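[Backbone geometry]
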Amino acid sequence: MPSRNELGDRRVIVIDTPPTPNGSLHIGHLAGPFIAADVHARYLRATGRGVLYSSGTDESQTYVLASARKLGIAPEELARRSWTGIRDTLETMGMSVDGFAPYDDGYRATVLRFVQELHAAGKFELRTVRLPYSEKTGEFLVEGLVCGDCPICLSESRGGLCETCGHPNNFDELIGARSTVDPTDRLTTREAEILVLPMEDYRDRLTTYYAEKLPYLRPHMAQLVRELLDRPLPDFAITYPIAWGIEAPFPETPGQVINAWVEGIPAVMYTTDHAARQLGEETEASDELWRTDRDHELVYFIGFDNIWFWGLTHLALIMAHEGRYIVPDAMIVNEFYELENEKFSTSRGHVLYAEELLQEVPRDLVRFYLALANPENQRTNFSRAALDKVAGERLVQPWQRLRARLAEAAGTVGVTTLPVSDRARRHAAIMLERFAACYELEGYSLTRAADLICVQLERLARWAEELDLSCQKLDRTALGDLFLEVRALIACASPILIDLAEAAALADGFDGSLGFETYALSEVKPFALPPLGTTTAQAG
């Protein structure tokens, strides 16, 4: 993976895979790609890099249809309500998306243009396949409408992809296929003629791409990519003979729709364009910012269960456009996040929504805990008791100690400026370097960044308590050094502790600077540290 120095000042397109609008976002969703993408985007802005961070929803997913049928409401109504709820949740959690795109005519036009160009270039092929079929309803069941056992790992899986092992299961490969809406419905299989993208045609290009990327991928993704490329790559369905989705415009497949997973790349092209327009930019076409002549850097933040689609099929779709579009420079993948040691399950009511948690826990503490317990390389667990204990002992208490001591110091010296030594400037630079190592893609780690906040905070709190603040013995340079390093820590923590950083920047003497710049100051003014909120349990 090229370093940021090698990449230069290219603008960065940050993609958080669009969530399915079949319900609100819960903490499990937020702990994965969203918090990771948001922290990286905030870091890029703090370093002065140009960034476009966007998201939207993928309404065409059959999961919307399945959920709506279970709830007894129209899928359009569920998607509409969910879109609003997802947008509001992202705002509530402080996710700094530059634009959250609607599912509208512009979205659909972008998808159709993307696939029609490939169809005209002869990239798709007609295949006769066998698909699960409901004799009761007279419809084919695909993706979120069907489940069974994975033919690769034998775990229960939805159609198209196994969340457990990450491998695809195409068409009639599920073992013991059954309906997700009506488990009593006995399924058969029937033939259907659909258009596919022959993935084997892109094997060489995918292999070349990953030969460069594999050393920099997180271990589980690297393992899955090797497994996928060691097997014949299955055809990727472009159309399905179902009624939910965007109508396919191809003469070979009348009455069919575009596979929702095909929409992924044109969808995020559209969200990127929407974000740019929200920032006041004008573009001639919704795919313009993804074109190779714009030379943008592209970063995906995805869950492990999305690797087959975003890491292979979507990449092949980009490659099928023969150099027209950029390919991702990096993919940051997370594992699953559990709730009280069980998998999040909306159907069983085993969920925790952000709005519920934020009624009892300040947003910064939630963001800190989601970063510290982030499922970067293995499944991790959300526990309310652990949040209270860890955030209280490792973040809130040392912050309160530091805040009280600096308030006492400020009362002693007043509003005068304090000198700063070379030692403090070196220490501030060291902190900036260590945090940057966590936020840059080469070693991206929210867990290490959150832990580093705790380590540096405890160090500064102890230092503050050891200072002699009596007027006769006060070391003004040592106090100035402490204030400088506290400023540096707040800047370094600002992509995670967003409310604390915003409040600190408004403090008298802080001057509002929160960038990752070199701290070459020769003097500082004392400033008051804002409070860091406590949970209801901690307050009690």
